[in-house]
Design a protein that fits this description.
- The structure is a single chain.
- The protein is α+β, with helices and mostly antiparallel strands.
- The chain has two domains: 5-211 and 328-408, Aminopeptidase; 213-326, 2-Layer Sandwich (Alpha-Beta Plaits), CATH 3.30.70.360.
- Helices cover 35% and strands 23% of the residues.
- It has twelve helices and 16 strands.
- It has helices at residues 5-16, 33-48, 93-108, 135-140, 146-151, 160-166, 197-201, 239-256, 293-313, 333-345, 361-364, 391-408; strands at 52-55, 61-65, 74-80, 117-122, 184-192, 205-211, 213-222, 226-227, 262-264, 268-271, 277-278, 281-290, 317-326, 329-330, 350-355, 370-375.
- Strands 1, 2, 3, 4, 5, 6, 14, 15 and 16 form a nine-stranded mixed β-sheet that branches.
- Strand 1 (52-55) and strand 2 form a beta hairpin.
- The longest helix has 21 residues, at 293-313.
- The chain is globular and about 80 Å long.
- The relative contact order is 0.17.
- The structure holds zinc ion (ZN).
- Zinc ion is lined by residues 80, 91-92, 125, 191.
- Zinc ion binds at residues 80, 91-92, 125, 191.
Length: 410
């Protein structure tokens, strides 16, 4: 059974033509005409190969292929078709096209697995228009309420629930979207890596150990403002000096905890913000991630302690708020084993690596065995028009996934 690389490429390009913007990328937001057109295109492909297609009341699209044993147990796959503003062609779409390719090959070769196979286009994964990312998968898990949909607005002030209604969906039926995830024997997600680890090592695919946990902190340091010329250097209470030390310490800590830890300060505000004014207040965020939850909590504790010490030594006030704390979700060991065996059998080079980015798998993986296959991102770039993965690499990942499905679903 051969993967048709040309078909994969054509489909990615065809989807990539919907939502093209003048800056060269793709903007395909949920509950828009672009999203609708994309779904129609994919549903049409699904119908042609005999898949049962069902769209739920918030816009997740489920493609189902019966198995020999239809007792509710299922092998599930998922990804998304929404994008970030001016994003790339491959994020999310690579997965959907890969699942379609496998279903198409099974259709052509009249292959029926024991368990039914399903794949889902999850709605609003990116959370760029309505800031409620991983929305479709969260709804499947029963973690989203009607209120969430009525409270969420886009930048123009349009209410999510109203926009859903405008496109024929029913936010009031959010609870009906809940999916029996306890019946899922295995969940797979194929996705582009979006980092440069595979490309640097010249390896086409990765097997994901798990999705790192995430913690977002806000640090506020208050000192005493003054005239940059008049105020002597001695006795200053400049909060920016402490802030820079803490920022250095975030990097040092993440490096200390090893290769699955990531510490980033990406948003710093200095007030009042004048070249000739000693700052009064500095606010910044810390994004800290690790696959090891214990290490992640220790690192945050260390950073917090250091921030307080440094601030009190310098006579400034430091307050730290934890805005978000999400636990890591580990891939299932047996599924990792199955995928590795398939890759070895097919002589496709792979490596194990964590996912620093969030995916629907981190929601679904809390309820059933989960595994992810990463496809090399050329140059490690993503979320921009330059995002690229070769059809050959996507084909290799698809081959490994198909072989794994044949074992797991049999
Ligand atoms: Zn994605």
């Amino acid at each position: 059974m051969r993967i048709d690389i040309k078909r994969i490429e054509n489909r990615i390009n065809e989807i990539g033509n919907i939502g093209k913007v003048s800056s060269g990328g793709i903007t395909r937001f949920p509950y828009t005409d672009e999203e609708k057109k994309t779904k129609e295109l994919i549903i049409n492909w699904g119908n042609k190969i005999g898949l049962n297609v069902f769209e739920d009341s918030i816009g997740n699209v489920i493609f189902h292929k019966d198995g020999l044993k239809n007792n509710g147990e299922v092998i599930l796959m998922g990804s998304h078709i929404d994008s970030v503003p001016n994003g790339g062609k491959y994020d999310g779409v690579a997965g959907i096209v890969s699942y379609l390719e496998i279903m198409e090959i099974f259709y052509e070769n009249k292959i029926k697995t024991k368990y039914p196979l399903e794949f889902i286009i999850f709605v609003n994964e990116e959370g760029c228009r309505f800031p409620i990312g991983l929305m479709g998968s969260s709804a499947l898990a029963g973690r989203l309420s009607k209120e969430d949909l009525y409270q969420n607005k886009d930048k123009e002030g349009l209410i999510l629930a109203k926009e859903m209604e405008k496109h024929g969906y029913d936010p009031d039926k959010i609870m009906e979207v809940k999916y029996p995830l306890e019946k899922v024997k295995a969940y797979f997600e194929l996705h582009i890596e979006q980092g440069g680890v595979l490309d640097t090592r010249d390896i086409p695919i990765g097997i994901v150990d798990g999705i790192t946990g995430l913690s977002v902190l806000t640090v506020k340091i208050e000192g005493i403002s003054g005239h940059a010329g008049a105020f002597p250097m001695e006795g200053r209470r400049d909060p920016l000096i402490s802030a820079t030390k803490i920022i250095q310490f975030v990097q040092k800590t993440a490096l200390e905890y090893g290769n699955t830890a990531r510490g980033t300060v990406g948003d710093v505000r200095v007030l009042p913000g004048g070249s000739n004014v000693i700052p009064s207040t500095v606010e910044f965020t810390i994004d800290y991630r690790d696959l090891n939850f214990g290490n992640m909590k220790n690192a945050i504790r260390k950073i917090t302690r250091y921030s307080k010490e440094i601030s009190s030594e310098s006579g400034v006030q430091c307050t730290i708020d934890v805005n978000q704390l999400i636990k890591p979700v580990l891939s299932n060991d047996e599924l990792i084993e199955e995928i590795s065996n398939s890759a070895e059998k097919l002589e496709i080079p792979y490596m194990n690596l964590p996912s620093g980015a969030g995916h629907d798998a981190m929601i679904i993986g809390q309820f059933c065995p989960m595994a992810m296959i990463f496809i090399r991102s050329v140059g490690g770039v993503s979320h921009c028009p330059e995002e690229h993965s070769t059809s050959k690499d996507i084909g290799l990942g698809t081959k490994v996934l198909m072989d794994t499905l044949l074992k797991v679903a049999k």
